[in-house]
Specification:
single chain, alpha+beta, 9-stranded mixed sheet, 3-stranded antiparallel sheet, 14 strands
Amino acid sequence: MITRPSPWWMPDRHTDRRPFLLARNRIKCAIRGWFESQGFVEVETGCLQVSPGNETHLHAFKTEAIGTDLKRRDLYLHTSPEFACKKLLAAGETKIFSFAPVFRNREAGPLHASEFTMLEWYRTGAPYEAVMEDTAALLKLAAEAAGTQAVSWRELSADARKPPERLTVADAFRRYAGFDLPLPETAPDALETFAALARVKGHSITPADTWSDVFSKVLAADIEPRLGSPRATLLYDYPVSEAALARRKPSDPLLAERFELYCCGVELANGFGELTDAAEQRRRFEADMALKQSIYGVRYPIDEDFLAALAHMPAASGCALGFDRLVMLATGATHIDQVQWTPAA
């Protein structure tokens, strides 16, 4: 017999969760103060959008707007405030941050919730390495606000005071998967080679799997669990195919200016040197939505207003950080609903 936990609003359960929630408030206050001291402006972005985002494997909540004339149009709860934030950069803002409620369907578990808080920030005219440095500062700040020097998840811990290790994706594959990553642009049989290498490692690879599918399987099983302990890891230099909204590296166009912050095997943040080429962004969106249609039988509209704004957006770097996860690791919580004031049912 499965025993369901008592509702979050029951006094005894709230008493257990309250120390985590008060720590959440302290961490948010410290982070807000840090951004303001750096000259950032806090912004609030609308949750209802014409497009929730155009990544293949992200799933949105769809709703319907009814006008006074009773005409109906589809809207979505955003999966990230990214499109709105970049429109603000096009409008003239230069350094912004947002604690945004975001919504993702088909997500549930200790580290996943259908509604959660995304901390997102952008710096115009800054290289993406500057945003990498921001993530390290915020990790240390969160630990301090929680009254600890280390962050933890399950049996792993990381010293938040130490600068994160910087590790390229290629080096991570060599170190943890035991082979060189075959990029699809470098050889016509890269997928077959990659699939064969993954099968040797024990992965189940099907004929329908794309290069990105194989990449995700190996990354999730062999690499991610080993990142971020005993100190955080900044994983960077992703293949272009795995960075839908990032610009190519000028020094190596096969790679993108994308990084992720890992602590204790948990992905905390995803950052980019932002793509500002509207035509290239459209091509990527259309390719991702075609793939989404083939896999899931659905596609999301492309936000034409976003693409129009992108053509006016200055060079910038930005990052999205899962705020609830950061609080979890800083406080030692074991489930995301322990650090959300009113978790979704």
